[in-house]
Structures are given as structure tokens and as C-alpha cells.
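Repro:
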Amino acid sequence: MTAAIELPSDVLHYSAFSSDPRGGNPAGVVLDASAHEDARMLATAAEVGYSETAFVTKADTEGRRFGLRFFSPLAEVAFCGHAMVATAVALAERLGPGPIVFDTPVGEIPVMTRTGADGAVRATLTSVPTRSRPADEDELGLTLAALGWDAADLDPSLPPHVAFAGNLHLVLAARTRARLADLEYDFDALADVMRRYEWTTVHLVWRESPDLFHARDPFPIGGVVEDPATGAAAAAFGGYLRALGLVEGAARITVRQGEDMGRPCELLVDVDESDPRVSVTGEAVPLEG
């Protein structure tokens, strides 16, 4: 039997959904937070200052099963894709590649980690079952007002939906790339709308082709203007595409995010029309703390 591996309790710094530390979405990772109370985890996340920090609260290194929680600088977040990818890569670097299971506030999330020919570790998470429904008139009107957008700015072929893959996200599709690039919104007003409807982000997208989308995710309820890469929203977006009948059989969608922030990210989203779950794949690289 392999001896249990001692995991570090200090904060590690990773950037997820990029192989370049100058890109990706930074995340804090604490691999041993077994003695951390909620207040300490929240204070740590606020001190780190990233959109989320992940905390491993229980660890079975032999069974490769871990309890995992996520905190933004302002509050706990039920599910965070980029911090999960960062945590999976950090664990794979210490335990070796292979399957990992995370027990999260939204349920069990399996992650497969692999090492590529270049030595980089890639992680694929599989979400809980997704669901998606059309946004109602009040949800849409309040959000557009906070964004400073007009209904004419939206792509009519991709209707507004509230999508779920562990968290709720409002999906809005911009008619043009220029509309997506020009993002100046009312921080407090949008935060109020998101709290009212319990949304984690507003997932703004523009469709370049059937399998390539560009995205931006305002995250005022987490205390940051924008998330450079949002794995949870990408999973929900995959479920949205399936709900609209835009996926036939098994398909891979590429989501590019963070470009307008100067932190380019690539999220690979795998959707199967016969499976209610969605998989999201990305790399993560260490940052200097």
C-alpha cells in the first residue's frame, strides 16, 4: 500500500486554462485546509485577492478523493471550474496523473488528469447534470440596464437563458465581437441583480463559428469586475447549447476568454446530446506567490 502523502498547507498560486503564466485565470490553492474554519478560508481568499481560492478540506491521497470548497474575496462559491482545475493539477504534480474525485458543495465532481508530451498537466472535470431555461422579461431587462446594453445588441439566434452546471449563470449572446469587447457596466447595479436571482456570473458570449465562442464573465458578487476564465460557466454554456439543439452527437466547443483583459484563456467544452453532464478541459501552471 502506498503511504499517504503530506500536502502543503500554505497558499499555492496557479493560473488555469493556460499553459502560459502570463495568461489564464489565477487561483489560490490550499491543499491542506483541514483545520481551517469558514472565517479563515474567507479571510485567506480576500488576502490572496483572486476571483477564487480553493481549499482542500478533506484528503484521501491513497484513494485520490478530496473535499473541496471555494471562496471569492467576498463569499463562498458552490462550484468553481478554474480553481478546481488548478487544484487537480497541483495534486497531480504531487500524486501523479490519473483520476481524482472532488466532493464539493454541489456534489461529486470527477476529474481526470493527464501529462502531455510537453510535460504539462491537463485536467478534465465533468460537471453535475446541467439544465437551462429561457430568461424572463424582468431578468433580461434589469441585466441589460446594468450592463448598458440594448436588446438590439443581442444575437437573436442565441436567446438569453439561465443555465446551470453547479451554479446559475445568465447567458447573453452579443450580436458582434465589438459589443463583447466594449464592456463597461454598473458594478453595484449588476451585483444587485445577480444577488436577486442568485447568479454566479453573467456569461457574455459571441459566436465566431459553430464550435468557437468568445466569452466574458462579469463577477461583481465575488468582488471582482471580471473573471478571466470561468469553467463553471463554460460547463453551463455547454448545457445551454445542448438545450437549444445546437449539439449533435458528441461535440467539442472551444471557448476563448480573458482576451480583452490581456489574460487569454482556452476552455475546451465537451458536450454529448445524450448526457446531461458537460466536461471542461484546461491546463494550469504555477505562479510565483
